[in-house]
Task: structure prediction
Amino acid sequence: MNRLANIVLVLHALVALFIVGGLLAIWTGAWLKRAWVRNRVFRLAHLAATGVVAALAVLGIPCPLTVLEDWLRTGHSGPQGFIQRWVSYWLYYDLPGWVFTTAYAAFLLLVAVSWFRVPPRS
Result:
């Protein structure tokens, strides 16, 4: 089960990278006049992923990936592996929940602004 938990953790990190890196890529690509940043499928996937994270935070629902990882780790003790330790370090912080809710909602607002400032192709 610990191996599955590590897979979920890496998947979680990749989703976070897609959400944060996607916005940076959209603005950088627009500045460099790259056509791929206007790809509708990419943009809809990015908007949907960001929207789901923000909605879960606003509704107070824990992230399903976090819940799944915790469930897979239940009953397993021992030292953390390399991937688990470093990916966890970058994904989880000890701050009040409202800080993350505000950050996720603000990030969704930035993504929405990007949708209009750098619109996808029809």
